[in-house]
Amino acid sequence: MRIIGGTYRGKKLFTPSSDNIRPTSDRTREAIFNILRSRLGSNFSQFKLVDLFCGTGAFSLEAISQGFSLVCSVDIDTTLIQKNASLFPNETNKIKIIKADATRKIPTNTKFDVLFMDAPYNKGLSSKALINIIPNLSSGAICLIETHKDETIDLPLNFSVIDKRKYGTAQIIIVQFLGQLS
Asked: Which of 121, 130, 146, 147 gets the highest tally of CB atoms within 10 A of its CB?
């Protein structure tokens, strides 16, 4: 597992020794960042990203390498993200790691422009996490939800599907947060 683009392209990351963590493949991460470029432009320096169920933190650290101003990595077990974040000593002010259940409200007041979520497949966790991250999303935020290719999720009313893409056994559902419902 490595960083696929940006300042730290080629940097190797620590990989999980357990099958309990399923990192997003390099190919899928590359495709997602191409999608983000088409939606947000090539300069990510004004954007903040939250990575729910971050696992190794590969997606968060890819976002740092590609120029995001801040990433917030959330997981119940932060061992691997902490180990991988230590490989980026010049970026510590841009990486926030929160040890928390991603299906509950996360303890931060930051508003995020991009959400990436890769919950364990087929457990219904993505819908719960989406509901609880709403207070932390900027209106218009782009949300990238990785699921099993055959999995469906229930989206809250204030999210609109933009696109769906399949990569091997994974599916990326691209949605936009339309803002708080009144």
From this structure: 130
